[in-house]
Amino acid sequence: MRITQELLLKYAQETVKRRLRGEMDLHAVYLTGSVLSDSPLLGGTTDIDMVFVHKFQVTDARECKKLTPEISLDIVHKLRNEYEAHKQLRLDPWVGYPLTNYHILVHDTDHWLEFIQSGVSANFHQPDIVLARVNGMFGAARDRWFDLVQAPTEVYPDWLDQYLEILTLAANAVTGLIGPPLTRRRFLMDFSERVETLGIPKVLAGFTGLLGCSNLKKDNLVEWTDAFQKDLITLAENGSAPVHLLPCRHRYYVNAIRAMTESRSPEQALWPLLRTWLDVQKALQKTTPQSEVWEECLKSLSLTGETCSEKLEALDAYLDTLDLVIETWAKTYEH
Question: What pLDDT does residue 335 have?
Fold first, then answer.
């Protein structure tokens, strides 16, 4: 089957029509993510990201469902009152950015969402608003770094999860100067493009250094992806998978990681592999036949319990570098 943007939009519209027949409080629905781009596929797979806005009640915050082997639905559920202070949403990059795109509407009661979009879009790209969003993310990254230094968790997977979350906030802070938040699968692909546009290649080099990419080999990625896929299956068999790791999402991650591994920049596969494999490990909470490969992966990347202090020290210096980048941008564009 040939997957096109038109086909994905058709699937989205049909999904909403079906849901409207059974969900009377569904107030608005809009699209986010790669379905709005010219190239939604990665590794021959994609998902359709939608936000369902309800009038009164949300039962599940998120759901993922299979449409075809290559396409899944990823639906976030929100309440209408979360949008009441719509001008404040300008400061929320994750909610605000999609609302500035006027091609996202799938369902809108009484033009309610159009009104919200107008309020969010006004001055959204004004330098002081951009800087407020960026500083919010950077401040959160610095605060979490401080928390990790002052009160390090004794459970290493939890420590690594917090470490990667700080890196996520840090990367989004600097790339937020010119664009929306980075997504998991395309994280390093888009990060690379944005820092090149900003003229700060050292920011990417510092980030990949903190990830341990220095000695990364394609053969490593192939072996780790095989083990990751097997752990995904084990998680599904245990019946304890979080919503984003359900079987309908396996190809979405694995095929994309394999495609990037075979590309000219195989190191870009590391972020979705490491970030998602860690989620699997935390959900499993036990050893598996692939645990040894997981430990070898972390060792190869110098991401082990023994390197925590060293990594936090390097992360401190990296955050200082980003602080200067943001400060320089502010001085250039605020006046």
Answer: 61
The answer to whether 6 and 221 have CB atoms below 8 angstroms apart is no
CA neighbor of 172 nearest in space, from 155, 188, 156, 185: 188
How, if at all, do strands 71-79 and 62-68 pair? antiparallel
Q: What angle do CA 129, 135, 141 make, to 5 degrees?
A: 150
Per-residue pLDDT, 152:
83
Cβ contacts of residue 179 below 8 Å, gap of 6+?
190, 194
What CATH code is assigned to 5-121? Answer: 3.30.460.10
Residues of the chain with CATH 3.30.460.10: 5-121
Identify whether the C-beta of residue 331 lies closer than 8 Å to the C-beta of residue 323. no
Give the closest residue to 317 by CA, choosing from 145, 140, 133, 157. Answer: 145
Give the Cα separation of 161 and 243 in Å (integer). Answer: 18
- pLDDT tens across 141-182, in order? 999 999 999 988 889 999 999 999 999 999 999 999 999 999
